[in-house]
Automatic annotation (TrEMBL):
GO terms for cellular component: plasma membrane. SMART domains: IG, IGc2. Pfam families: Ig_3. It is found in: Cell membrane. Its main location: membrane. This is AGAP009964-PA. Residues 16-122, 209-313 form the Ig-like domain. Keywords: Cell membrane, Disulfide bond, Glycoprotein, Immunoglobulin domain, Membrane, Repeat, Signal. InterPro entries: Ig-like_dom, Ig-like_dom_sf, Ig-like_fold, Ig_sub, Ig_sub2, Neural/epithelial_adhesion. PANTHER family: CTX-RELATED TYPE I TRANSMEMBRANE PROTEIN, DPR-INTERACTING PROTEIN EPSILON-RELATED. It comes from Anopheles gambiae.
Length: 366
């Protein structure tokens, strides 16, 4: 039987699938990195006569940024640091995602996807650590790391940065690692140095012997930051007052407080001091006797010291007392009546007679 319709023969093979997981990678910023995605049975859905029913394609994506980076051999992203290659001669085709000059923004999960009928995906994580300064140190306590931390309680295998440390004598790689690991776990610092090694904690291998001087931070005189320090305050009698004084400098300055008139500072009724140390001064239940100027003085051993004057005003109602409540005087003589008044702010004072009539200045009254 002859047919006018073309005959197609469908060759159905196994579904594509991943052969290896994508390795999680930790890399310092500025380095180049390569992520690998291996696939077998890729492009298994085809028909004869070169008519493709479904050709499987491998794509790379940055999952956190929801960004498609590459599709098959093509780079989709506009990031010039991204490229893609693949080994077509390998039995299991491997697609490599290349990232040059890795930056902090590149960290996160990277997804490799095969566009089968039901898409297949797998993830690898790129962890980017900051560029680490090289320091030589005398003990564990002196280890300095940028963009990270290191303490005696941290196990060596958990540190993914680069540090510098001193050793007593030139040691082999294995003994150096063992000694440093034991020193951290036992909280015992290594002895003073004659050699300095660059240790990669992520891979536990000494990569470069080098003598590097430890930098000495510059010394800077103290400077009081007015933007985060207190200014003059006015409070009601009986309230609490908190004064703050923040200062910068190298080494970090210390702060002490004293009153401008050298009288004592009443922190509480039972705690009265001549000076107070700390960047915060709190006065509890202030009274009129706490009113005055307070000096915040910052020192760090680098001259000159600096100070800030903060005035505390305490408002309270008028209080009066009369020294002589009964005065006798013959008719026709002059007499002076006294009335002492204490108030803040200054009160408005006047005299009245028994009929509440206000007395004004005249020839009789002054």
């Amino acid at each position: 039987i002859n047919s006018v319709f073309p005959v197609f023969f469908l060759a159905v093979l196994e579904d594509p699938e991943f052969t290896d997981v994508i390795e999680n990678i930790t890399v310092p910023a500025g380095r180049n990195v390569k992520l690998a995605c291996s696939v077998k049975n890729l492009g298994s859905y085809k028909v004869r006569n070169s008519f493709a029913v479904n050709v499987d394609i491998v794509a790379w994506m940055h999952f956190e940024q929801s960004a498609i980076l590459t599709v098959h051999n093509h780079v989709i992203t506009r990031n010039p640091r991204i490229s893609v290659t693949h080994d077509k001669h390998d039995k299991h085709k491997t697609w490599f995602l290349h990232i040059t000059n890795v930056q902090e923004e590149d960290k996160g999960r990277y997804m490799c996807q095969i566009n089968t009928v039901t898409a297949k995906t797998q993830f690898g994580y790129l962890h980017v650590v900051g560029k680490v300064s090289i320091f030589c140190v005398n003990s564990i306590n002196d280890i300095l790391i940028e963009n990270g931390f290191f303490s005696q309680t941290v196990v060596l295998y958990d540190v993914h940065l680069v540090v510098i440390i001193f050793f007593q004598h030139p040691l082999s790689i294995n003994s150096s690692i063992s000694r440093l690991t034991d020193g951290i776990k036992k909280n015992t610092p290594p002895r003073p140095n004659t050699a300095c090694f660059l240790l990669s904690c992520a891979k536990l291998s000494i990569s470069l012997p080098e003598i590097v001087p430890r930098p000495i931070p510059p010394k800077l005189p103290p400077n009081i930051d007015d933007s985060v320090s207190s200014s003059d305050v006015i409070v009601r009698e009986g309230a609490n007052v908190t004064l703050r004084c923040k200062a910068t400098g190298s080494p970090p300055p210390s702060i002490k407080w004293k009153r401008d008139d050298n009288t004592k500072i009443a922190i509480t009724r039972n705690n009265i001091v001549l000076e107070w140390e700390g960047d915060v001064l709190t006065l509890s239940r202030v009274s009129r006797y706490d009113m005055g100027a307070y000096l915040c003085i910052a020192t760090n051993g680098v001259p000159p010291s600096v100070s800030k004057r903060i005035k505390v005003s305490v408002d309270f109602p008028p209080m009066l007392w009369i020294p002589h409540q009964l005065v006798g005087i013959p008719v026709g003589y002059n007499v002076t009546l006294e009335c002492n008044i204490e108030a803040h702010p200054t009160s408005l004072n006047y005299w009245t007679r028994e009929n509440d009539q206000m007395i004004h200045d005249s020839q009789k009254y002054k």
